[in-house]
Design a protein that fits this description.
By secondary structure, the protein is of the alpha/beta class. The chain has 18 helices and 18 strands. It has 2 domains: 2-161, Cobalamin-binding domain (Rossmann fold, 3-Layer(aba) Sandwich); 192-429, Aldolase class I (TIM Barrel), CATH 3.20.20. It is 39% helix and 17% strand. Helix 2 (47-58) runs parallel beside helix 3 (82-95). The structure holds cobalamin and iron/sulfur cluster.
Length: 470
């Protein structure tokens, strides 16, 4: 079948992100002999012109819409992408008789609501490789798709969500069809190559959608295949910096260690980063990270005070956090802590405690978000309901913010931002300076922009702009 995939994301902050999910779907379909075209809207100025052109030229039997983000999850400078995506969907409806199917991580957080918003009747939640192939093959046979696990469909006016069960990574040997992307443009604009070594997350952070998107059971990929992919990225595209997009790179630790060891044994010169949980860091593991090319760690810290770590459902306490940070810093790894202020029980005092601890630790970067985006099916949804929030329509971003932070939360955040000017307050400061990011890349800076935030800030200040951007 001819399948057109449209990756609708156009967000450029903190850099344009390659739609790896859509390229995985493309690879899975291509492997089954289907003819796939990917329309990546990231660098398309006018989709109203482009979509009809592509639809008329390609004449697909199925159009897959890949939705990575539905909003930017930032408070107070919230951006809601769905109205623009609805226009894209309507444009497809107007120019093709083909069936439309929606998927992607952004879609999976609220599938029924999004289908209803678009007035569509078919979606695929979670990892979609096997499911989309099953859907296409049933469509070709002309048989019923209703029993396929992982789909959401409309029947007699109501949406039905079939269960999703994962038992393995699902596509160990499959590599995303990156050649469908304008990689040159991505890297020119500051992008970092994504790679995945596992799916799923077993932790229970009260706000998190990741277990809903990828499942709770962790399914790892064979470390040798992961490193084969890294080798190919180097050989075929000259990529020498990768981002492990796994929810948590260092869990299970033995899997992370096996990947590092494989990189070291094969003497691959690559730099990389990923998301880390402070819980599992030891001197030996940190030294392996460093030796295998890890340049910096992004820690999902959220708070640096025991009360808030517990309230947010984090798996570590303050002592563990501090000792892990020190291990990384002493090993020469750059460190970035993500903070999430405003959770249940947060007060000015607990927020101050967190920010003070961070100041004392003095990491490479601290990125602070305030307010927790409430998603259906997460524990924070229940807490918000108990606290009297009116959660009628969660498609429109709503944020949980502890009342104990005071009535004028925006002012409180602004005050924190002034008091801690060395930190990046998301949702308060302006976005990435595209020009500066490009310039930094030309100067040879690799990896996520937080790694060189101090240099970037100096350049921005010289330009007379407000600093502290990622
Ligand atoms: C890694 C990551 C990042 C990294 C990306 C690094 C990189 N170089 O790629 C960084 C830190 C930069 C980042 C930034 C942001 N992120 Co982010 N990110 C993720 C994360 C953890 C993984 C995404 C990923 O690549 N997954 C791996 C691929 C293989 O999976 P996938 O894309 O989901 O694709 C699978 C399925 O979805 C499906 N599928 C995908 N497309 C299609 C299409 C069809 C037709 C079908 C049938 C199926 C299908 O099949 C695919 C293969 O199995 C997700 C959370 C998560 N666990 O999904 C959040 C997530 C996508 N991010 C999110 C957000 C909000 C953001 C930011 C806006 C945050 C911010 N304010 O800066 C930015 C936006 C960046 C941008 N320019 O777009 C949200 C989106 C939800 C929402 N509210 O909209 C998520 C879901 C996290 C969350 N809060 O729940 N992010
Ligand atoms: S915040 Fe990280 S560790 Fe916690 S549940 Fe989400 S992905 Fe897992």
């Amino acid at each position: 079948m001819q399948v057109l995939l449209i990756a609708v994301n156009q967000e450029k902050h903190p850099y344009p992100v390659q739609p790896i999910g859509a390229t995985y779907i493309a690879a899975a379909l291509r492997e089954k002999g289907h003819h796939v075209k990917l329309l990546d809207l990231n660098f398309v100025d006018d989709f109203r012109k482009e979509i009809p052109l592509v639809l008329n030229g390609f004449k697909p039997g199925l159009v897959g819409i890949s939705i990575r983000n539905i909003d930017n999850t930032m408070y107070p400078n919230m951006e809601f992408y769905l109205p623009r995506i609805k226009e894209i969907v309507n444009c497809c409806k107007a120019y093709t008789p083909a069936r439309l199917v929606v998927g992607g991580s952004g879609f999976s957080v609220m599938p029924q609501e999004i289908l209803e918003y678009f007035d569509l009747d078919l979606g695929i939640t979670g990892n979609g490789e096997e499911v989309i192939c099953a859907v296409v093959s049933r469509m070709e046979e002309g048989t019923d798709i209703e029993r396929i696990d992982g789909i959401v469909y409309k029947k007699n006016g109501a949406y039905i969500k079939n269960p999703v069960t994962y038992t393995s990574y699902g596509c160990d040997g499959l590599e995303p069809d990156r050649f469908l992307l304008d990689l040159e443009r991505y890297f020119e604009e500051g992008s970092v190559a994504p790679i995945q070594s596992k799916r799923g997350c077993e932790f229970d952070c009260i706000y998190c959608t990741y277990p809903l998107i990828e499942g709770k059971m962790v399914r790892v990929r064979d470390p040798k295949m992961v490193v084969d992919e890294i080798e190919k990225l180097k050989r075929d595209y000259g990529i020498d910096y990768v981002f492990f997009i796994d929810n948590v790179f260092n869990y299970p630790m033995n899997h992370a260690i096996a990947i590092c060891q494989e990189i070291i044994d094969r003497k691959i010169e690559i730099q990389w980063t990923g998301f880390f949980n402070p819980t599992f860091m030891t001197e030996e593991s940190v030294s392996l990270l460093k030796e295998s090319g890890c340049s910096g760690v992004e820690l999902g810290t959220e708070a640096a005070c025991d009360k808030m770590l517990k309230n947010l459902g984090k798996s570590f306490n303050l002592n563990t956090l501090i000792s892990s940070h020190k291990l990384c810093a002493e090993a020469g790894l750059k460190t970035c802590h993500y903070l999430l202020l405003g959770g249940p029980g947060e007060t000015i005092e607990t927020a101050e405690e967190t920010l003070q601890v961070m100041r004392e630790l003095n990491p490479t970067a601290v990125i602070v978000a305030t307010g927790i985006r409430i998603y259906p099916g997460t524990p924070i949804e229940k807490i918000a309901l108990e606290d009297g929030y009116n959660l009628q329509n969660l498609l429109i971003p709503q944020f949980y913010i502890s009342k104990e932070l005071g009535e004028n939360v925006e002012e409180t955040i602004q005050n924190f931002a002034k008091k801690y000017p060395e930190f990046i307050f998301e949702g308060v400061h302006k976005k990435t300076s595209k020009e500066i990011l490009k310039m930094m890349r030309r100067m040879g800076f690799k990896g996520p922009s937080w790694e060189f935030a101090p240099v970037m800030n100096r350049l921005l200040k010289r330009q007379g702009q407000d600093g502290q951007k990622t």
